[in-house]
Amino acid sequence: MNSDQFDYLIVGGGSAGCVLAARLSEDPTVNVALLEAGPVDKNILIHVPMGLGAMAQLGTANWKFNTTPQPGLNGRIGYQPRGKVLGGSSSVNAMIYARGQAQDYDAWAAEGNPGWAYKDLLPYFKRSEDNARGANDFHGVDGPLHVQDLTSPNGLVPRFVEAGRQAGYPVNNDFNGASQEGIGAYQVTHKNGERWSAAKAYLTPNLSRPNLRVFTGAHICKVLLEKKHAIGVEFIHEGQTKQLRARLEVLVCAGALQSPQILLLSGIGPKAHLLEHRIVPLHDLPGVGQNLHDHVDVVQMVNAPAASESIAINANGVARLLRGIFEWRAKRTGVLTSNAAEAGAFIKSSPQEKTPDLQLHFVVAKLVNHGRTTVLGHGYSCHVCLLRPKSRGSLQLASNNPLDAPLIDPNFLCERDDMDRLITGFKIMRNLLQQPALTKLGGTESPKSAFATSDLDIEQFIRNNADTIYHPVGTCRMGNGPMDVVDTELRVHGIAGLRVVDASIMPQVVSGNTNAPVIMIAEKAADMIKAAAR
After folding, report:
1. Phi, psi (5° rounding) for residue 519?
2. What is the Cα–Cα distance from 249 to 256, expressed in whole angstroms?
3. Which of 9, 39, 45, 364 is the most buried (most CB within 10 A)?
4. Using one digit for the tens of pLDDT, what is the confidence trace for 363-394?
5. Which among 440, 446, 373 has a CA at the least distance from the CA of 156?
6. C-alpha span between 203 and 213 (Å, rounded)
7. Running DSSP on this structure, what letter comes out for residue 434?
8. Whole-model pTM above 0.70?
9. Could you report the per-residue pLDDT of 211-253, keeping only the tens digit for each?
């Protein structure tokens, strides 16, 4: 076997891994290796914001995971796309910059995780950010991650925002400011009309550092342990099984679906499950792979032939897209700078809620089946997702073969409260889409959902159509309880020299999109790792 030695080995070149690679290699006295299973992020579809639609159709840069059959979804198998490329899911997502609520992080701290309250984390959000609007109490301007308003917003967005105002919701120009509640346009991780992924923000500018080495096409088999100390990793690269050694730490950043898989393959996890797959249990840690949860989401589509500004597959729409190609190449403006999900809202399912428990994503196109199914004609879509689901599932091994996908069971809608809130959210969304600002376009709800008028009908529509909005978390939960996997410094309980740094450590999912929080987690982790080495 080939072997080499580094101070830090980073497993996974997604959002967290790119942050750690950049921050740790700032010290020229340490050597850092980053291992990513996917390729370099050179595909043009990654960098053209509207390219996310083509990537969905082609399955580009994507692990394309599926769930186990979900009883809460009438036995359907859900889809779990995750980025398989430098930048990870930040290279394939809809580029929405949202942090969640201050109360989310305060709850983490209250559960026994000191140092993770909002007041502790806001400096890391600001440090990561370069917001085109400028600096204030909530935003930074000197960070690597460029955040801005859309360059060429779609004309349907002000109509949607006005419809929300007509429905009684406040207009919010900054979901990451003093209050999250309300309706408005999203800010995005763009720069100069291009996607600004974690790879472009943190990794690419620092690839020339002599103390940073990046391995792409490197599929991790396991973490190497010696007397409950992480000493390296084993991986498949260029058709060979290789090993790298870590002088200081192994940092697992493979995401909520693969970080627990790697721990399990390494002999760290529930003893009985490891023995079931003929893996020697090196450390019995029952919480590995448990507490999986995600934002479950359902879409309503509206057919609106008069919505000529929408992104559409028809003669007018294709001509507009062709013009957009030339405009993007010449000026990095135009329709191709759209992230499709341009606007949204954070709202309450009832006045009794202290903070919003529902999120809307307004899409300026007719979108179904994660964009994998082509729908003709003008129109628009709206998603509603449940921000704080109670349902919990698990991540388990399918086999001891590291090339096999894990068994992903989010256990969607197993809790009645989740379904009741989503039914309410669907009705709220329908009411908003029926306000005058939008009905002026003559839109009609797709027959696929229009039949659902009673709560029972809506429930069946949800069970037949709901799926992830791509925010799985929790499978290596942070805390100090018997089912927790990492401590407040993200060190794996009982294993020296091993940390997990990604969305899997979240005790509870944040009330919003998860990319910005993952980047924040990695920024904080970098400080903790540096402090431990002093």
Report:
1. -65, -40
2. 20
3. 9
4. 999 988 999 888 989 999 999 999 999 999 99
5. 440
6. 11
7. T
8. yes
9. 999 999 999 999 999 999 999 999 999 999 999 999 999 999 9
